[in-house]
Amino acid sequence: MKTTVTRTPELRTPSSPQRVLAALSGGVDSAVAAALLVEAGYEVIAISMLLAGNAEGHDGGCCSIDDFQDARRVAEQLDIPYYVLNLKETFRSKVIDVFTTEYLRGRTPNPCLLCNRDLKFDLLWQRARELDAHYVATGHYARVEYNTAHKKYQLLRAVDQRKDQSYFLFTLSQAQLARTLFPVGHLTKDEVREKARALDLRVAEKPESQDICFVPDGNYARFIEQRLTAAQRAQVPAGDIVSQEGHVVGSHDGIHRFTVGQRRGLGLGGLPEPQYVTQIDAERGQVTVGTKLQMMTRGLAATGVSWIEGVPTQEVTATVKIRSRHPAIPSRIVTQPEGRAEVWFQESYPAVTPGQAAVFYDGERVLGGGWIEKAL
C-alpha cells in the first residue's frame, strides 16, 4: 500500500496569519529560515538564546558576541521583533556541567544534542506558548512531514545530505514535530547562501562554526580542568594505560583526556602497531588501548531510547549512526524494557563511544535513537 505524505506548513503560505517563534543564532541558516517565513506570510518573532559563550565573550565557535550582534541586525533587516532569552544558568547546569561530569566518568558526551533537547526545543516551546506562537522554527537542516496513513509526524533527513542535522533531533516528540518548522531543510547550503545574497543579508558570506561553542579552541581537557576547584582536581587521579592483555604500556594524567577511538596524543611510541583507546574505566582510572582490529565491536547497548513514531513491537531492521558524521551502519535493533535497546551491527564496526548517541534510520526517515551505554 502506498503511503500518502503531506508536507508541513514550512513550505506553504498560511491561510491566516500564524505566529512563529524563530530562533536566530547569528548564522546564515537561521537568518534565511526567518526570511523564508516572513516571505511566506507568517508573523515572525525572532529570539536568540544568551548562553555561556555569549556572556563570557568567546571569540570562536558559535554563540559568540559577534553572533549575538549579527542576529539582532538580521532581525532589523527583516523588520521583525527581536528578543533575547537569558539561558546562561540553564546552559551551564544542563549542558556544561553534564559535559564536564560525563568526561570525568570516562564518557564522551555530545553537548549539541543536550542543547537541542533541553534548551533549543523545550525552553523555546515554553516561550512560544507564552507568546501565543503557533510554531517554533530553527535553521536546522532537517525536514518534517505528516504521514496521513499512519497519522504520525515523521522526521526526515535534509535534502542536502552533507549538511543534514537530523542526527541531533532524534529526541523530538510527536507534539514537538507537529509545531516545529525547518524552513531550510528542503534547500542545499549553496541555495541558502544564494537566498541570503539575494536578500542582502549581512551574514550571507559568514563562515560556519566548527567547534563546541564553549570550547572554541577544541581543548576539552584544559576546559574541564579550568572548571574544577583545587579539591576536585586533586580527586582526578593519574593512572595506567594498559594493553588488551592488561600489561601496563604507559601512564596518563586523567581519563578526561581520552575518548574511545582516540589514536593521537597517547604517548605510546615504539609499539609495533598503531594503538587506539578501546575502553575507559573511570573507577580504576585506567585507559585500555589496542589495535584497530581489537577496537572492533558487533554492537552496542543504548539507554534513554526514544522512538519518534512509537515503540516498535518487534525487532527493527535499520541503519544506525553512532556519530553525526559517521556512515550509517546496517543493523538490527532489539527493544528492551525501560527505554533500553540492543543494536547489533551487520558487520563489526570500530569506536563505539559511550556517551554519544546512536540514531536509527529507515532510509530518509529518523526512527529514533538513544544514548550509547557500552559496546557489545
Walk me through what this model shows.
- The structure is a single chain.
- The chain folds into three domains: 5-198, Rossmann fold (3-Layer(aba) Sandwich), CATH 3.40.50; 237-291, Adenine nucleotide alpha hydrolases-like domains (SH3 type barrels); 295-375, Elongation Factor Tu (Ef-tu), domain 3 (Beta Barrel).
- Helix content is 26%, strand content 30%.
- The protein contains nine helices and 18 strands.
- A six-stranded antiparallel β-barrel has the order 13-16-15-14-17-18.
- Helix 4 (88-104) runs antiparallel to helix 5.
- The longest helix has 20 residues, at 111-130.
- The chain is globular.
Topology:
Blueprint: E1 5-7, E2 19-23, H1 28-40, E3 43-50, H2 52-56, H3 65-78, E4 82-86, H4 88-104, H5 111-130, E5 135-137, E6 142-147, E7 152-157, H6 174-177, E8 180-181, H7 189-198, H8 220-227, H9 230-234, E9 239-242, E10 248-252, E11 276-281, E12 286-290, E13 296-307, E14 316-321, E15 329-336, E16 340-350, E17 357-362, E18 365-375
Helix pairs in contact: 1-3, 1-7, 4-5
Distinctive features:
26% helix, 6-stranded antiparallel barrel, 9 helices, globular, 376 residues, 5-stranded parallel beta sheet, SH3 type barrels, Rossmann fold, alpha+beta, Elongation Factor Tu (Ef-tu), domain 3
* CA-based shape: globular
How many helices? The count is 9
Quickly give the structural class. alpha+beta
- What is the CATH H-level superfamily of the largest domain? HUPs
Structure described in brief:
This protein has 376 residues and is of the alpha+beta class. The protein contains nine helices and 18 strands.
